[in-house]
Amino acid sequence: MARYGMVIDTVRCVGCMDCVVACKTENEVPEGLNRDWIAYETRGKHPTLQMEIRTERCNHCDEPPCVTCCPTGASHVEDFGRIVLVTHQECIGCKACLASCPYDARFVHPEGYADKCTFCIHRVKDGLDPACVAVCPTHCMHFGDFDDPNSVVSRLLASRRHHALLVAAGTAPRIFYLD
Amino acid sequence: MTELLITRSNHLVDPYVHVWAWQIPVYLFLGGWVAGMMSLAGYFQWQGRHRDRQCTCVLTPWLGVVLLSLGMFALFLDLEHKRYFWRLYTTFEIASPMSWGAWILVVVYPALLAAALVQPPQWLRRAVPATEALASWLESRPALVRAVGLASLVLGLALGIYTGILLSALGARPLWSSAILGPLFLLSGLSSAAAFVHLVARRRDERVFLARADNLFLMLELAAIVLFLIGLATATEAHKQAAGLLLGGPYTAVFWVGVVGLGIAVPLVVQSLAVRHRIQHTPLGPIMVIAGGLALRFVIVYAGQVSHWAPQVAQF
């Protein structure tokens, strides 16, 4: 069984927002809402500053609190690729999942259900990359199966220094950023 | 230092999570209040005090049915996908406190109604003779009344704890990541219920008994608040920052003046003087306790949503 995730090279990401536009187009994300976004993080003290630009989205965590807290089972881990999804017709819009996500990756769709990144599961099932990965002009995004030691994402993690976001929140995120 | 700028500005999420407005604190307050009423009424029924027609405690389940229904309505108003609310009852999600809450309410309603029917108010006895007949039938079965009382007491305590656990299970909001929230909300609910009976009780001995009980609940509530803050202030950086919201941050004044001062400390002094016969019993103390209970839910729900794990975020 696959366990899909992403590896994103922060050295290559320039924050062009192509991934954001591709996601909105592919998934018809309503105006004013985003399933993915760009973060510009600056650390340190002048003049020794470090900057990291990265593209962010739902981390499809191995221990997803949004799934645990959901009272109807609408938020679930799909067998296909262990992707975290929401079944729209089961969601009551209680927003517990929005409150439970340390990444604030979810939002309420204007139709009332909780919505977020799906890793473009409809494309992945057809053997394609998610839209954001497919359009990245710097090729900084990699999508693949962490359970396969020979996948590109597994080999990148084995060979490069990397970090994940808010690990202390304890959700075991499945998006990693190369330093 | 770390400066984080993001391009996202999602409704209800940015610049900080504000998914829950007045409906949730109102529901948590009413749920806790009803839980307190059920516990008190259950205790008095367990003690066999239902035979005393002047006893106000055993009448509170009637008000409880109304208040819980109002709370449920507030909860319904909060839902964004209202026409699917019945999905709560097509499954039981064992890890979800909200699912537990939905099913607890299914058990609480009949228990609350049973506790209420043990002693219908006089006007109802006259208006609907069947309630009088049922109450008489129950009165001749003390074991059954004790069982109803016990069920009311246990379910009341469960409901009161649940209103706090609902929030504390959401680990992404550090202010809520404390198991003390369960007992804190339960104590607040018990105190609001005792304050209400103190306010409306017909007989002096019951009024004094409930004022004393309320003083005990208020002192325990103060202790729970202290433990809650110590727990956060001695944990991770995110939890310390969350505690800071109430200890110098934007929610400090409303928490210490509104919740702790006017909602607990002042009524505790007023009611302590009253039970020691230094001053008359006044409605002031109980009203402040009840308002303080509502303020507690508002502060915890609003401040909790602002607390976060991520570094301070700024939008474009």
Which features would summarize this protein structure in a list?
heterodimer; A: 179 residues; Alpha-Beta Plaits; four-stranded mixed beta sheet; two-stranded antiparallel sheet; 6 helices; 10 strands; 26% strand; globular; B: 316 residues; mainly alpha
Topology:
The complex is a heterodimer of chains A (179) and B (316).
Chain A: E1 4-9, H1 18-27, E2 36-45, E3 48-57, H2 65-69, E4 75-77, E5 84-86, H3 96-100, E6 107-108, E7 114-115, H4 121-124, H5 131-135, E8 141-145, H6 152-159, E9 162-163, E10 175-178
Parallel strand pairs in A: 1-10
Antiparallel strand pairs in A: 1-8, 2-3, 4-5, 6-7, 9-10
Chain B: E1 2-6, H1 23-46, H2 60-78, H3 97-118, H4 122-127, H5 129-139, H6 142-168, H7 181-200, H8 204-233, H9 237-244, H10 252-275, H11 284-306, E2 313-315
Helix pairs in contact in B: 1-2, 1-6, 1-7, 1-11, 2-3, 3-6, 6-7, 7-8, 7-11, 8-10, 10-11
The CATH topology of chain B comes to Formate dehydrogenase/DMSO reductase fold
Please state how the strands of the largest beta sheet of chain B are arranged side by side: 1-2
User: What is the CATH architecture term of chain A?
Assistant: 2-Layer Sandwich
Gyration radius of chain B (Cα, Å) is 21 Å
Rg of chain A over CA atoms, rounded to whole Å, is: 16 Å
**Structural class given helices, strands, pairing of chain B?**
mainly alpha
**What's the β-strand tally of chain B?**
2
Most extensive chain-chain interface: A-B, 49 and 48 residues
Low-confidence region ranges of chain B: none
How far do the termini of chain A sit from each other? 29 Å
Helical content of chain B, roughly? 55-70%
Task: Tell me the strand percentage band of chain B.
Answer: under 5%
Named at the architecture level, the CATH assignment of chain B is Up-down Bundle
Subunit arrangement of the protein: heterodimer
Domain tally of chain B: 1
Relative strand content of chain A: 25-35%
Stated plainly, the CATH topology of chain A is called Alpha-Beta Plaits
**Looking at this structure, what is the CATH superfamily of chain B?**
Formate dehydrogenase/DMSO reductase domain
Strand order in space, largest sheet of chain A = 8-1-10-9
